[in-house]
Amino acid sequence: MSLEAGKWYDLEVAREVSPHGYFLTDGVQDVLLHYSEAVGDVPVGEEVEVFLFYDSEDRLAATMREPLIQLGQVALLEVVDIHRRFGCFLEMGLGRHLLLPFREQPELPELRPQVGDKVFVILAHDRQGRLIAKTASEHDLKPLCFDAPASWKNTTVKGRVYKPLQMGTFLVLDGGVIGFGVIGMIHSSERTRLLRLGEEVEVRVGYVREDGNVNCTMRAPKEAGRDEDAERILAVLRERPNGAMPYSDETPADVIMQRFQISKSAFKRAIGKLMREGLVYQQGSWTHLKQEAQQEQ
Questions:
Q1: What are the tens digits of pLDDT across the range 172-215?
Q2: Which residues, at least 6 apart from 160, have a Cβ–Cβ distance to it below 8 Å?
Q3: Is the peptide bond before 67 cis (omega within 30 degrees of 0)?
Q4: Threshold 0.85, pTM exceeds
Q5: Residue 167: CB partners within 8 Å, gap ≥ 6?
Q6: 222-239 and 253-260 are packed helices; what angle lies between their axes, rounded to 10 degrees?
Q7: Mind listing the domains of the chain with CATH numbers?
């Protein structure tokens, strides 16, 4: 059986060749353990445990250092560099970085990871047998996660995006000391902005589902959210000529979402609050800032 990158092997130290390092063998194939990848004594004739990878010259090489990921495993790796042609490079704890190619990333550039983000990936081989990262899916992550307890409802937790879509964002919520984490989803209507792959975000758990996954929101609870939404609407009105805007209870929901990034029900709640406080009034399909409110600017 030929040696494969991404796995641990016990190989015999066949010879030392200065200034390169040690050549190891399984009796059929030799690989180089460079001096920089050796840990402790490496006596010729003895066996050493090594992890195989491809070096910067695409040669199969060995290391005695512990990688952050192994073949077929899921790990959370940090983005350390981005190449405009190939993709992003991840820290894997060895002498070279691991490529996450663009084909494994979202098509929209704004949804792709940035340096400092951390991505859930699986270590795999490309067609030439070299190590490559593939984005982990829910199928890969779910067995590692635990079911969210009912007590998580309405709590605020941090999560890491593993699948950003237009219709919603999927993430793994931090499990802390309990375990790996919990699968969560933020519907597009509960998102205040687009989220990129590998981004960390703080969310509130709105609903714990029967399958143990959770629905999340980036929005504040209704009372706090209503105040924030009302302030946003007031700010728009105060910037408009004559303190009027062509948005009201009659405006379609998609237009409201596009202009204010809130649902129509949230818009109506905020408008109702402003009307009760005597700050605005509606006339036809327009909302107007009352004169007293304009004078408060």
A1: 999 875 668 999 999 887 888 899 999 999 999 988 988 999 99
A2: 76, 118, 120, 171, 172, 174, 181, 198, 199, 200
A3: no
A4: no
A5: 187, 188
A6: 80
A7: 8-63 (2.40.50.140), 74-136 (2.40.50.140), 144-217 (2.40.50.140), 222-295 (1.10.10.10)
